[in-house]
Design brief:
- With about 130 residues, the protein is mainly alpha-helical.
- It has one domain.
- It is about 85% helix and about 0% strand.
- It is built from four helices and no strands.
- The longest helix is centred in the N-terminal third of the chain and has 36 residues.
- The two termini are about 15 Å apart.
């Protein structure tokens, strides 16, 4: 039974990762556009990029990864958690004077792991 659950979680994580790659491309593109073109802070750039990418991520993961219904409640749960994480990482990067690429790499990694756990066990729990 435990092996079956581990295998299912591994498959779900693989799907989440594939969706995450596309989400990351969207996020990075919007981040650099907002940060460089509009000369915003990293916190603002990261948050705006998140808002654009999270909508794609939520609906793709609802349908493709978790085969679950997308609802307003689930969307808000996902967006609020991931948005807070986005702001926290952007704020930390601004405070530390981190390079934008470091901000993006760190946020991409931490949001992949924490986002999967949160989505799997809270937002899209069976």
């Amino acid at each position: 039974m435990e092996t079956l659950n581990s295998r299912k979680t591994g498959i779900l994580f693989s799907k989440y990762l594939m969706t995450g790659v596309l989400n990351t491309l969207i996020h990075w593109g919007v981040f650099f556009l907002v940060y460089r073109v509009f000369s915003t802070s990293q916190a603002t750039g990261n948050f705006v990029a998140f808002c654009v990418a999270v909508t794609f991520s939520f609906f793709a993961n609802a349908k493709f990864t978790f085969k679950s219904n997308a609802s307003l409640r689930r969307y808000l749960l996902f967006v609020l958690f991931m948005g807070a994480l986005s702001i926290l990482v952007g704020w930390g990067a601004d405070t530390l004077g981190a390079l934008p690429i470091i901000t993006l790499v760190f946020f991409s990694g931490i949001s992949l792991v924490l986002g999967f756990i949160y989505a799997r066990y809270i937002v899209f729990r069976p």
